[in-house]
Design goal:
By secondary structure, the protein is α+β, with helices and mostly antiparallel strands. 34% of the residues lie in helices and 23% in strands. The strands form two sheets. It has an eight-stranded mixed β-sheet. Strands 2-4-3 form a three-stranded antiparallel β-sheet. Helix 1 runs antiparallel to helix 5 and helix 5 runs parallel beside helix 9. The chain is globular, with a radius of gyration of 19 Å.
Amino acid sequence: MGFRDFLKKAQEVAVYYGFKPIETPMLEHEEIFTSTIGEGTDIIDKEMYTLKTKGGDHLALRPEHTAPLMRAYIEHGMQTMPQPVMFYQYGPVFRHDKPQRGRYRQFWQFDLDCLGNDKSIMDALVIKTGLSILEEAGAGNLTVDINSIGDKECRGAYIKELTSYYRKHLSNLPSVDRERLKTNPLRILDSKEEKTKEINEQAPDAVSFLCLSCKKHFKEVLEYLEEMGIAYNINKNLVRGLSYYTRTVFEVYTESEEEGGLPVQVASGGRYDYLARQLGGKKDVPAVGFSME
């Protein structure tokens, strides 16, 4: 299926499930990303295209759609609209350095986002809509990896335990992951280093540290997925790289024809209830999104 055909199909499915179109600028103030995506992430460390204007403004070509969407939500007073507000958007995003397999320095993303509701049904709805789009586009053998990384009530205890675990294995950690231990320990779970992958097999898992409300939320998400007939795999090492994620995180894979049937990631997302405050909003805005590329 060509890109235009995919786009047409994706829009039809998104509208069917109640999502409305929105466009955000390709150029944003750099701090929108540096204040929300987080230190120790590849995007901030080495993947953003940034520039300084004659007036001294620091701008960046967007490396992802979520932070600009939340900025628009806050600036345009969308919190006064009936909640949740549900949007789809598509367009180019930009990352330099060494692009991941199957990615280019400019690539297109199609995003679904639901803002203003913390209910677990929203997590499931976003996943269901995203999977429907991929299936309509002809993707087969889709599998969903899912996890919960908790919220500010319980994540601190988990990160403390995780840091303590990695310190015991410090001599075997590659230098890139030793650096992450200082800035963003969760990122080590997402490491591509073979030595780290072995260490991660015995790492403490986030689900064991969830507080009662996070545990209830995650259980409900899984129950909704089951009711919708969506198969999932709980992946205890799944964290997603960006620091604004909270509670539900997920990745979607399909089998690659070129790579000898190896699973290839085609979509990802999660809940990001604290992003609004990180962007200077007066209060938290519960939100969840799905991104495919």
